[in-house]
């Protein structure tokens, strides 16, 4: 065992989970990709003639690390952080119930855990996310021979309750009032109109640099080149009136406003001209929307993500097909768009009431 390897990654004397740390240092270690080159040689040294690794000396924490950073994975840091958070939460719960190693865990105990989880988290979307992550981790551990039981059979995949999907509909008049509210604030106004006219995620706006904005002389449009959630690339059209507000904001910061393929400054900078942190800007957007009373048609508070829903519905109402909307938003399929973004609009379109009229109907109330 390499002495440089963090102690929790290998089995120490005593119970491997009983001293599970709750501090940030453990999470940081689990997210550090550099440690893979320290841990992986241990497995190579313990490979049998059939190409199987001997994980017997690896702790549960070590297996979490290897799963998160395995070469077959392609998760971004934010996704890896979510997996670490959920798996550590799962392992800590096991410790609280007297289970100090997932290798002694039984299928029936996982069934009990899922019942506890459903009581703790009534929303099926939350349950589904947690169960999916735990299921995938346990399945991998079984496939690699770390677990002797296929524990994933103790978990039932959660079917999302469509009734729990929040209403994210924002009407045009409400959005226009928010635009008017911030008409003298080019910083937030530029972000608000960017979100509503492109359907971009916040991360797709704060990650690009100014050099990623370019002009297509054939189409006579400006485009922003940005990386999408699934490592794709989108060339998002930036409307001229949107760009003018953003330019005013950049001008007030003293930043370059001319197109420049070498400009490394952020496309949408913070007040000191640096890239925003996603969590920071997300909180700001929610607060700013609340200040402008930008809420849903059901009077629920709105977040930046709700603007993607506004974009999808607006595009659909103006003739865009669900396939094109799905591709623009970077959804894995049009089914995601139809079920999560346009299900109300499609129900209205599919309703046949317009085909039924009482042609001879008369009343005293007309």
Automatic annotation (TrEMBL):
The species this protein belongs to is Paenibacillus gansuensis
Which keywords does UniProt give here? DNA integration, DNA recombination, DNA-binding
Start and end residues of each Core-binding (CB) domain: 58-142
Matching entries from InterPro entries are given as: CB (IPR044068), DNA_brk_join_enz (IPR011010), Integrase-like_cat_sf (IPR013762), Integrase_catalytic (IPR002104), Integrase_recombinase_N (IPR010998), Integrase_SAM-like_N (IPR004107), Tyrosine_recombinase_XerCD (IPR050090)
- Similarity comment: Belongs to the 'phage' integrase family.
Identify the Pfam families for this entry: Phage_int_SAM_1, Phage_integrase
Task: List each copy of the Tyr recombinase domain by range.
Answer: 161-354
Q: What is this protein called?
A: Tyrosine-type recombinase/integrase
Q: Does the keyword Isomerase apply?
A: no
Per its UniProt entry, which superkingdom is the organism in? Answer: Bacteria
> Does Membrane appear among the keywords?
no
